[in-house]
Every structure is written in C-alpha cells, then in structure tokens.
Amino acid sequence: MKTYRNYVATWVMLFLACLASLLFGAGTLELGQAFAVLTGQGTEDARFVVMELRLPRLVIGMATGLALGVAGALLQTLTRNPLAEPGLLGVSAGSAFAVSLAILLGASTATLTTLISQVGALAGCGLVVAATRIQGAGQDPVRLVLAGATLTGLLLSLSSLLMLIDQRAADEIRFWITGSLAGKRWDQLTATMPSLLLAGAIVVGVARPLASLALGEKVAMGLGHKPGLIRLMVIVAVALLVGGATALAGPLVFVGLVVPFVARSLAGADIRKTLWLCLPIGPAMIIAADTLSRLLVTPSEMPLGVITAVIGAPVLMVIIRARRIPAL
Q1: 183 phi and psi angles, rounded to 5 deg
Q2: pLDDT at residue 7 above 90?
Q3: Both 89 and 136 in a single domain?
Q4: Which H or E run includes 235?
Q5: Statement to judge: residues 11 and 141 lie in one domain
Q6: Of 13, 39, 43, 80, which has the fewest CB atoms closer than 10 Å, so is most exposed?
Q7: Nearest to 280 by CA among 3, 10, 21
Q8: Same domain as 169, residue 36
Q9: Contact at 8 Å (CB) between 116 and 176?
C-alpha cells in the first residue's frame, strides 16, 4: 500500500510540474492568459507562447529527465555504486565533447548530433565500467567519483578549448556546456526518439537479469543469465539514453544521481521498482528546474545545468557524509 501511495504521489508531482511549466515563464504572458489557453480559449499570441514555445520544451524536458534518471539507476546498479552518475563520471561530458568536436567540424543536423552524442556517451560509459575494474575503485564509491570528476573536468576543458579555436561555433558549443531547453523544436525530439525507444526496449529486457546480477555474478549465472552480456546491454542502453538527453538539453549533471537516490529511498533496492519510480521523478525534476530557470532571473533565463547542479550538489554531500555509503 505504501509503494502504491508513493507511485501516486510522484505522478501527481509530475502533473503539477507540467502544469507550472505551461503556466509560468520568463515572458510577459500573464497567468490567466496561459490558463485560458489550456481551457481551449485565449488569444492567438497566448496560444503561440503556450503551445509553440512552452509545450515543446515541456515534452523534451520530460524525455530528458526520464532518460537521465533511468540511465543513472542503471549505471549505479551496474557499478554497484550509489554515487555513479552520468554527469559525475564523464558519460555526459564525453557526449558533450563529441558534439562540440562535431560542431567545430561543421555538423549541424539534429540527427547527426544525436548519433555523435551517443558515440561520445558510449566511450564515456566504457571508461566508467573500466574504472570499476581497477583494484579498489569499484569498491570505493568516493575513489570512483574522483576518477570520474577528473575525466569530466578534462573533457569539459577540451570542449572549452574548442570554443577558442572557432568563434563561429563558440555559441553553439556553449549550449552543450551549460545545458538548456530554450528554443527546442519538435524535430529535435523526433530525431532522438528512435534511439530512446530502442534504449527503453533494452531496459525492459535487461531489468530482471540486472536485478539478479545485483545479487552477485554467481547468482546471476545460476539463474541462467550471462553477466557479460548484461553489462554490455546496460552500457548500450546508458549510452543511448545519455547521448539522446545530451543532444536534447546539453550535459546536465546530478540528475542521474538525485533521481535514483529519491526513487530508491521510496522503493528499496530492487532495480525494477526503482526504474518504475524514475519514470515520473526524472521528468518532474527537469521540468521543475526548467521552470525555475525561467523565473529566477526574468526576463532572462538561467542555464538549466546550473539549476540541476544547485539541486543535486546538496544531495551528493548528504550521501558522501553518511556514516556508511550503501553498496548496491
């Protein structure tokens, strides 16, 4: 019964976040005018703002939050480390660096950006898994995070260096560094959806074997699963999810840490229950952060990555300062 209440509460939270995203913004549109559009009325200008500007970034924000939340839960379970997070361990930074390099070389289409973003995420994810194989790193969450932070800093520095090479591409590259949902279009989501749907299919197929792998390789093998294949499928799913999310909104940190942490605190250690709760919590976090980014410095907007960092950093400190960091 308690789990059912948690599911209902999180979906209500997502609904309220979506409603706030459509009603509030950095422009001059009043609350009553925005609400009139949602009831089928409103002026043509108000309808344009709500349906053509706010609605696309709302749906893209939902896709981004869902992808990063699920990717974080998968990565934490795979590495058996509650601090594993795409933004902290270099996966998002690898994706952003690949996109920055592609922009410098002249790439511009949304499809090409998505593909390159996923290749960069795949490389970053591979380095994360390799780091867990280093003696002591996989068992020490803090050491793994320090290694990931080093990789992230290096890749972001290289991305910043690319901005100095070509001023023409500097503004586009800066998007991938700070993260934003402003000005997003439906065609960008359409270009990313095939890979996100493929990742979703992989997650559905790997959830049960991954839950067995969390109990140990011998247990998973005894149940007829192949640990090597499970890891490979999880890496591919994480790369597709993080690459797609980065292509849509840039390299956002801490989302993949906060969302699984909250979901696990509500559902327990079972990865299947955690994934179900990540579905509403991830989008709710991104949408709420995006709404705040529009309201804090009106009529301008703050970078979305700054808001997610402000939300996620205290959660990271709480986990690190715990007397005992739980193993997954």
Answers
A1: 70, 15
A2: no
A3: yes
A4: helix 227-249
A5: no
A6: 39
A7: 10
A8: no
A9: no
